[in-house]
Task: inverse folding
């Protein structure tokens, strides 16, 4: 493990503490302009997000309406009733985004897949980057105001569903994650810069509570007049 990643993981609580836990639940409220571009009516109601920490699985409820939830893995996305009955499902869901661009409308299963992989990636960072199959290296730092944030580039293994193969993470002087850059492959590959802030300590692990994603220009600067996605997280519960 390169020193930058080791230091970041330690600042967030350490691998031993992370590996001692199996799953995580949190309350999530989302907003931003992306949803309208995708033809989705996104309200500000809190929902419960659940993930497995050590395999790529996620679920959010309610989804669509009360009594429904999602069931996400990279190979399958489903909408289920509370009793486990499958309402809708799609195998090999990433293929369904072929030829999509930023304004292509999504159906409920598209939305559920995006929500599943994105939140699983966010909630497991930076610990995720220390697992088998990831290739990481330090890149040029990013200057933000009076701070310099050290940069890490991660190449994701093909079995992990996420925004794209290559993603960049920036860490502040305290080694907590401040920014996450990526291209959203399932929406035409547009470039985004996500700012991450307001961490809380939960069972000794630092978890950010605010995420704000913006378009990113060719100079890596965020386009701040368009808030693509906002995510507010609270009430974290490890098991």
Result:
């Amino acid at each position: 493990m390169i020193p930058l990643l080791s230091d970041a993981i330690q600042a967030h609580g350490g691998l031993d503490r992370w590996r001692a836990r199996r799953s995580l639940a949190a309350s999530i409220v989302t907003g931003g302009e992306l949803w309208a571009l995708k033809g989705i009516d996104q309200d500000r109601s809190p929902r419960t997000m659940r993930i497995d920490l050590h395999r790529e699985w996620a679920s959010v409820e309610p989804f669509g309406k009360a009594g429904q939830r999602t069931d996400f893995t990279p190979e399958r996305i489903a909408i289920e009733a509370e009793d486990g009955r499958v309402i809708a499902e799609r195998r090999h869901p990433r293929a369904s985004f072929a030829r999509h661009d930023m304004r292509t409308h999504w159906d409920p299963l598209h939305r559920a897949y995006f929500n599943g992989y994105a939140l699983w990636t966010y909630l497991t960072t930076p610990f995720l980057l220390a697992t088998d199959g990831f290739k990481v290296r330090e890149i040029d730092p990013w200057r933000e105001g009076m701070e310099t944030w050290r940069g890490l580039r991660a190449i994701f293994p093909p079995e992990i569903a996420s925004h794209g193969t290559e993603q960049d993470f920036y860490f502040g002087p305290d080694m907590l994650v401040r920014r996450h850059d990526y291209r959203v492959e399932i929406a035409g590959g547009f470039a985004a810069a996500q700012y991450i802030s307001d961490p809380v300590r939960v069972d000794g692990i630092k978890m950010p509570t605010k995420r704000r994603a913006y378009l990113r220009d060719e100079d890596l600067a965020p386009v701040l007049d368009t808030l693509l996605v906002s995510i507010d997280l609270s009430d974290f519960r490890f098991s």
